[in-house]
Amino acid sequence: MSATQNLTWWKNVAIYQVYPRSFADGNGDGIGDLPGLIARLDYLKTLGVGALWLSPVYPSPMCDAGYDICDYTDIDPLFGRLADLDQLISEAHKRGLKLLMDFVPNHTSDQHPWFIESRASRDNPKRDWYLWRDQPNNWRASIDGGSAWTWDEGSQQYYLHFFLPQQPDLNWHNPEVVEAMHNVLKFWLDRGVDGFRIDVVHCVGKDPTFADDPRCMAGETMVQINDQPYSHEVLRGLRRLVDHYPGDRVLIGEVNIRSTARVAAYYGASDELHMSFNFPPLDAPWDPVVFRLCIREVERCLGEQSAWPTWALSNHDNSRIRSRYGGSLARTNAAAVMLLSLRGTPFIFQGDELALEDTQVNAQTRVDPGGRDGSRAPLPWLAQTPHGWSGTAPWLPFPPEAEALAVETQESASDSTLNLYRRLLHCRRESTALRLGDWQELPSHPQLLAYRRHCEDDERIVCINFDAAEHAFVLTGEWIVEVASDRHGEDQPFAGLVAAHQALILRQKGSAHEC
Q1: 224-227 long-range contacts, Cβ below 8 Å, gap at least 24?
Q2: pLDDT tens, residue by residue, 372-402
């Protein structure tokens, strides 16, 4: 593959997910905000990422952590002002960082003016902006697993909500809804936003017959099984809009379907999503067989249509990497090497570069109705309590080992996870093979996952040991250990052994492409 064929920025960077409420607090109220994020942009620049994805910061009652939006074109006072968002865009761009917003097209808050009008009466002009029926079908909602329909006493009909009752679903078959939501994207694109992560985009095109679904009888929720053809028409319209803007604006979809083949369909014929999240790795245990199959499936399904992969091992809806891998720091660091060396664009959830674990919540500290608070804990910036969050106590408890895992602590430790991420991201930026190269699986011991990345005259070999014992890995030629997840043997000749739970990036001796 030629590097000159892939100059698109989003193929060449790692993207960092900022969960604003837990990133950095700029005003001492215990809730992270935009001024706090702006003050920490140099940290992200030094880390080595190329773009930020900002989870929702719009005005919201916060029934679902901001995914219940009551105004798509403003900023919630919790996070700052619209002027702060403009400053964030400007300051990020000054540092060469792109900024992506979270776009939530499937539903609004029940406090959105559109829904307030829609429920006012059956003959309201906005009645058809949402989905109303006299009788519910058997569709089930996500989060609580109950009926996806709620009775509205005032207008004497049921309305549809795939998520909480406070999140009524929009009717994308209504051209006025399409126009209104297109205007939302234009509003942010005109302000300089570089693209969007699109929430549950596979849900927007509802089955027009509203037929009962036998899978709902088995307890499955619609967020898992709704996958209608009209969603693709919606996406084609969004793509046409975004493509009219300069600067390679990007659409990244949350297609929460545990089938890579079905996810691949959302790329369309290069006329829908630019990229889509692939969720099987988020479910995968620390097992070489499972990851080998995941990667092969991505290469097969996306390679057939020249679609660009994404890789994520953590996000705001899932347990953190280290918690899923039994608390093992060695496994967590090895996973970082894998994440940042696969073919495609890697996504880093804030705090994974610190090897944070899920925080512990109880009945008194729980916030999220879906039980997802664990991965959303505040980042510890300083070693000493309150870890850089002065003023009111943060909205969630800090994660375990906050002092030892704080940014301040890890910056001075050469073998820390933070410095591993910095080395990996530097190596990725300097190597066209790691950014854009082909992926080829290599023969290895069953407990090893080994592959070759190659682009023009640049080449890297990656080997991850999933086992608690060391294993031999035989290569032809002389190779140098460029990055080791435990730092052992770096810049030394590779001796043919991979230590327990160690991951390595190797380059050929004498290569002109050194990181």
Answers
A1: 224/142, 224/256, 224/257, 224/258, 226/162, 226/202, 227/202, 227/257, 227/262
A2: 999 999 999 999 999 999 888 999 999 999 9
For the chain, the structural domain boundaries read: 3-108+175-427, 113-160, 438-508
Q: Which of 25, 68, 169, 254 is catalytic?
A: 254
Q: How far does Cα 196 stand from its chain's mean position?
A: 11
Cβ(229)–Cβ(252) under 8 Å? no
**Average per-residue pLDDT in the chain?**
94
| pLDDT of 459 strictly over 60 | yes
Q: What integer pLDDT is reported at residue 192 of this predicted model?
A: 98
Would you say domain 113-160 falls under CATH 3.30.70.20? no
Q: Catalytic site residue 176? A: no
CB atoms within 10 A of CB 303: 14
Active site residue 91: no
Of all residues in the chain, the percent with pLDDT exceeding 70 is: 97
- Work out the number of other CB atoms within 10 angstroms of the CB of residue 150: 17
Domain 438-508 listed as CATH 3.30.70.270: no
Distance (Å, whole) CA 441 – CA 459: 14
Distance CA 418, CA 410 (A): 6
Considering the entire predicted model, what is its pTM? 0.96
Closest CA to 487 of 424, 425, 426, 430: 424
DSSP state of 393: P
Alpha-carbon distance 234 to 314, whole Å? Answer: 27
pLDDT in tens, 166-183: 999 999 999 999 999 999
- How far apart, in whole angstroms, are the C-alpha atoms of residue 510 and residue 86? 47
The distance from CA 184 to its chain's CA centroid, rounded to whole angstroms, is 21
Which residues make beta-bridge pairs with 200?
none
H or E element at residue 37:
helix 34-39
What is 3-108+175-427's CATH superfamily?
Glycosidases (3.20.20.80)
Beta-strand ranges (E) seen in 163-210 are 195-198
3-class SS of residue 208: coil
Question: Cβ neighbours of residue 350 under 8 Å, at least 6 residues apart?
Answer: 16, 17, 18, 19, 22, 23, 379
Inform me whether the pLDDT recorded for 363 exceeds 90: no
User: Which pLDDT does position 214 carry in this prediction?
Assistant: 74
3-state secondary structure of 168: coil
* Annotated active-site residue in 25, 84, 199, 373: 199
